[in-house]
Amino acid sequence: MKNHAALYKNTLLDNVIPFWEKHSIDTENGGYFTCLDKEGIVFDTDKFMWLQGRQAWIFSMLYNKVEKKQSWLDTAKNGIDFIIKHGMDTEGNFYFSTTQEGAPLVQPYNIFSDCFAAMAFSQYAIATGDETIKELAVQTYYNILKKKDNPKGQYEKTINNRPLKSFALPMILSNLVLELEHVLPAEEVEKTIAFSVNEIMEIFLDKKSGLIYEFVKPDGSLEDSFNGRLLNPGHGIEAMWFMMDIATRTNNTALIQKATDTIITILEYSWDTKHGGIFYFLDAKGNPPQQLEWDQKLWWVHLETLVGLSKAFEHTQREDVKEWYNKVHDYSWKHFSDKEAGEWFGYLNRQGEVLLDLKGGKWKGCFHVPRAMFQCWKSFENIASFK
After folding, report:
1. pTM over 0.70
2. 94-112 as b/e, with b when 16 or more CB fall inside 10 Å?
C-alpha cells in the first residue's frame, strides 16, 4: 500500500483529468460533452445538468485544493456559465438535460441536478470570491430543502398507497452540507448534519442485518416489497465515508468505527464470491432483484468502496479493512482501468468483462473517477505520515 498515494495522484493528474480536458469541453456553446466513447470521441451531444454540475465542481475543487491552475478555473467557468444560462427554469429548479446549445429537453424531475449545481457554485465561489455565485449556491441549497419531503414534486409517478422514503436524500445532504459549510449559517450546518446522521445510521441502517436499505416506511420500519427489500451496496458504502468526514470534524471515533463496521458488513453481503467484484443491486432477502442489471459491476460502486476503505484504514488501521481494501483494489484496477486510452471503463458484466467501453454517457461523467483518485491520494498521504 505504500506506493498507492503516488498511484492515485499520478492517475488523477496525468491520466484522468487530461482525458476530460482534451475531449469534453464544448468551446462553442459552453458546458461539457459527457457522451464519450473509449477514445474520447463525442457520440451524443445532449448535456445532462447533474453531470455539468459535477464536472464544474471537480475542476473548481482541483483549483482550490491541488493547484491554482488557470486552465482548471477556466474549465470550471465554462460549466458554471452554461448551468446559469441554460440549466434552470424560472423558479430556480434545474433541468435534467438540454441540447448541446442549451435548449431544455427534460424537466427538473428530481433534486440531484440541483444538488450538484449547488456543490459546483460553492466550490467555484471559493475559487473566485464571486458573491453572486455564492448566493446562488445558498439559494439552491434552501430550494433543495424545500423539496426534501417530496423531491420529485409534480413528476412523482407513484400513488401514495405504499409510501416509502428514500435513502438518497439524507445521503446526499450529508455530503452537500459539508460542501456548503463555508456559505451556510453554523446552526443550519449542524441541523442538517444531525438530521442526516440520524436518518442514515439509525433509520436506514438496519440494526439486525447491519445493511443499508434504499427505502423504508415513513416510520422507519421495513417494507416487504421490491423497493422495500432493495439494497444498493455502492450507495451504502459511499454514505459511510460521508459519515467518516462528518465524524472527523468532532473526532467522533464511535461513528467512525460504526461506519467502518457497516462497510465491512455490506462488502461481505455484496461481494461476488464466484467472479469477484461488488454486485450493483441485491435483494435483502436473497430474492431475485427487480433490476435486470443487478449483477453488473459498475465503476462508481468500486471507486466509492476504495474511498471508503482507504478512509477507514486511515482512521482505524484495522487489519480486516486492509484485507478488504487490497481485494477491492486489485479487482478494480485490473478490470476498470483502461491502460490504452486512459480513464476507466464504467460497466462490466458479472464475469468482469467490459460490457460497454464508453468513458462517459448519460450517467457517467467527470466525477466518480477523479473524486476517488483525489480522496484516495489524500488518505494514503495521511497513512504514510503515520509510519
Report:
1. yes
2. bbbbbebebebeeebbbbb
How far apart (Å, rounded) are the C-alpha atoms in residues 319 and 339? 30
Q: Which residues of 156-186 are buried (b: 16+ CB within 10 A; e: fewer)?
A: eeeeeeeebbbbbbbbbbbbbbbbbbebbee
Pairwise CA distance, residues 172 & 188, whole Å: 16
Angstrom distance (rounded) from CA 185 to CA 181: 8
Paired with 282 in beta bridges are 231
Nearest alpha carbon to residue 342 among 116, 37, 56: 37
In sequence order, the β-bridge partners of residue 354 are: 348
CA 147 to chain centre: 20
The per-residue pLDDT for range 202-241, each reduced to its tens digit, is 999 999 999 999 999 999 999 999 999 999 999 999 999 9
Give the C-alpha separation, 241 to 255, whole Å: 11
Alpha-carbon distance of 306 to 29, in angstroms, equals: 36
Sorted by where each starts, the structural domains of the chain and their CATH numbers stand as: 163-356 (1.50.10.10)
The 10s digit of each residue's pLDDT in 63-116 is: 999 999 999 999 999 999 999 999 999 999 999 999 999 999 998 888 899 999
| Rg of the chain (C-alpha set) | 20
**Closest CA relative to residue 116, chosen from 87, 91, 89, 90:** 87
Find the mean pLDDT for residues 182-187: 96
**CA 195 to chain centroid:** 20
pLDDT digits (tens, 9 = 90+) for 120-179: 999 999 999 999 999 999 999 999 999 887 776 766 667 788 899 999 999 999 999 999
